[in-house]
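2024-03-11 09:14:02 DEBUG pipeline.ingest accepted 1 chain
2024-03-11 09:14:02 DEBUG pipeline.ingest length=430
2024-03-11 09:14:03 DEBUG pipeline.predict start
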Amino acid sequence: MMRAAMLMRWFPRRGALPALLVAGLASSLATTSLAAQPIAAGGTGERAPAADVVRQPYHAVRTLSLLQERVAQGDETAFAMQKEVVQEIADELKTFPPSVWREPRNRLALIKYALSGGDPERLRAVHAQKLFTDAERPLAEGALAYAEGQRNLALRLLERVNVFTLPPSLAGHVALVKALVLANSDLGRVIRLSDEARLLSPGTLVEETALRLAMEAAIAQSNREKFEALASRYFRRFPRSPYLGAVIRPVAVAMVENDYAEKPEGARWVHSVVHYLDPQKLVQFYAVLAEIGLRDAKLATTINATRMARKYARDGSPEYAWTQAYEGAALVIGLAPEEGLALLNAAEASGVPETVGELIAGARAISHLIRSPPPSLPVAEKPAAAPTPQKARADAAGSPTLAPADQYPAAVKIQARIAQIDQMLKDIEQ
């Protein structure tokens, strides 16, 4: 029963799946114990078949798969214990007698363990004993090469493997490893292999990783349609993934570069993608979106993102003050200077980190420059001419006249753009 207790320590507080696993393992250990006992006098020997359920290496590797499924779903305990569990499984694999490796399921489990980040020592030993069949050898050698960091060799070997001929529990891992090895070269094939991996291993860490990898490739390809499909799927299926932080910034960058949140329909689509996140993660996402929008002068994006973040931030919290500062910075640049300055003052009064304080100071300085009249430019000297009566009166008054701002073509364009964005923001609010 020690292994059952060990699994209960690995899964101390989550739902029915670990409980079923522990119960099944406990039953397996109990029947093994009974099978090992001599049959009592007069017994029929009906318990003998229980020896078929003796714990095997593939049971140990299945434990890692279950653990990683819970990691993908956001189980913080499982995530924290991954490294320890991987090592304990490596130690357990060393305890099995040589005879177990004649079973195909156990040999394939060794391959899966190595592809999942496990120690390849036992796989190397079984391969040295020439226990893999001719059909299995490219897969075993490819897994070894990948575990040892020989990526090019791993790809050459795994290219000889048709993933659709493998057991479902292994096929997704092999497709994903192929995609990972190709990540910096053939982007189109990376997406196709990632699609295969996630379809072969739905709901697992393989699917979660494949979605992240395919999104990165779609962004690099500027494949907008594929990016939208993958982003929607990722945030819907894995909103609590511990690897979410690696996804938020590249997704936000892609959204800003493609002007998703510059128009009402785009802003609504962005929220439909990310609304599966918990409030804290939503604030984090919109914070990144607002920051990138401001850096890229996408003012409508920044304003929309800060207002969405403020809906989920606690009133009076540092996050709330941060949203005021970023929205204020966007507004003072041209949309509504007075409203923007009021937000900057409110944020500063609430107390903000030094970096946000620098943003507030910079926004105020830019606002001052925008609202100040243009400096007088030096004029080349011309031969003196008799001044007109109108000019003579102006010189006498000592106050040169300036053309109204709306007579400058650039100013007219800016004002038209401000009016357009202002109307769009009203549409977003509605």
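2024-03-11 09:14:41 DEBUG pipeline.report The chain has 21 helices and no strands.
2024-03-11 09:14:41 DEBUG pipeline.predict end
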